[in-house]
Amino acid sequence: MNDAVAAMGEEGGAAAPLKARHALLKRLADVVSLPASRINAFERSVTGDLLVEMLRLAAPEERRRVAARLAPLAELPNSVARMLLRDEPEIAGLLIEQCASLTDADLVSCARDAGPDHRFMMAGRRGLSEVVTETLFSFGETAVIECVLRNTTARLSQVGLEGVVGVSRQTPSLCTPLLKRPELRPSGAYVMFWWCGPEDRRTILQRFAVSREVMQEVSEDVFAMAAREGWSDPVSRKALQFIERRQRNRAAIAKSPFDDLEGAVAHAAQNGLTRETASEIAYLAGVKPLTGAKILGDPGGEPLAILCKATGLSRADLLNLWRSMRRPEATADGAVHPDWERVQVTYEMLAVDRAQTVLRYWNWSLSSALTPTLLRAIRQGEDEAVDEYSAPQRAAMMALAQDFGR
Length: 406
What we know:
- By secondary structure, the chain is mainly α.
- It is built from 27 helices and no strands.
- Helix 5 (78-85) packs parallel to helix 7 and helix 9 packs parallel to helix 11.
- The protein is elongated.
């Protein structure tokens, strides 16, 4: 008799405990879900610990049901949240996307311990804080970074944003969403200009090519003060050089074999861009050799238009400079070459003052104005791309590379 009962118990035991398990999981989840008026924090925590132990051995569908039940809660036991956030993506996603009670610590821990699928879901979560977005950026996953950038409710820190600016050099698809972020500052946009496509470059010039009129108004009398002091203070001298209206280097004219910048450009158009002429153009334009090298070596050509507009060169001078570099003016069928057309449009769209802001920021940024992260973004990969530059451009790059400690 006893053996028969035991056998029946074994036969029926496969289904009976599962019913009990389902019921208990539901009841414990209900208890955890009770409002604070019905259960105190300690009781909720102990119930959560027991629920975690059951969930460790539960089937994925059971864990999914519990996650769906707990996602809307305003208060969630830490042990339960920690376990479910590291579960399979379709289970963890219920909390990542819906649970408002998750803290930054919960999210950062999940991002570090879980996988790319979890981080991608987290990137689209509403209201991400700066500490969470920085953590997500740190993994360098393009899909995750782009999702964060397109998340208009996410907040980005300047440190995190600068890191993405650097990443965008190898991942051009990030440039467009990055330029739409309200946190992006001109320093980052001007650096990105060098590797952005034509449309993104146009966006940078339209949005970030700002005027220095206010700075010029408030510092007008300071120029006279600095002159009386003999320009002896390097700090104020450097700042005033950025603010002043004059772009060309008058002191360079006295030492130059050319009468002016126009003469140097005309000579280059007739005789080709030699090392000496390229250097003179840079000096006369009031920029450093590396700035000049980057402008002359840029494949898109827009920086040439900015250089010409900022220094007061005419459209004819722009054409001379274009020809000096042996750049195409027309296509095989006689139409205006797209690059040359785009350069002319860039020249026309910019006011002199705004073009000067961009040019001076480029010149300034290649010395000390930018953070180490943005400077690395500028320098990265230029050794590998050195063959893309002409001999004078390579010479200028190598000369200034010493200043960077390469």
